[in-house]
Design brief:
This protein is mainly alpha-helical. It is built from four helices and three strands; from the N terminus they run H-H-H-H-E-E-E.
Length: 112
Amino acid sequence: MTEQEIRCIVDGQRNFFLTGNTLDVEFRIQSLQKLKAFILKYESEIHAAIQKDLGKSNFESYMCETGLTLSEISYMLKHVRSFANVMDTPAPQTTCQRENAQQTKTGIWLQS
């Protein structure tokens, strides 16, 4: 893959993120479920690539790579709805003119 191809992919992903489609919790859940299914479907190919690139055994690649990722996906699927809630958060005086800031679903802090 060339540097230009990588930049094109990154720009496309960045533009998609800016559309706001990823704010929808159902979209996030579906994306995580698709990623989990993909990893499970291609687990042997992923392990083979890790073996070739990093020299890790199937057991080691599962414990340190795919198994860990699957565990994180399961955790996110369980908690994504609560993580997506907007909440008031105290902010230090040095970073915000007001006493509180607000954390949005994108993780961006806004002055309230």
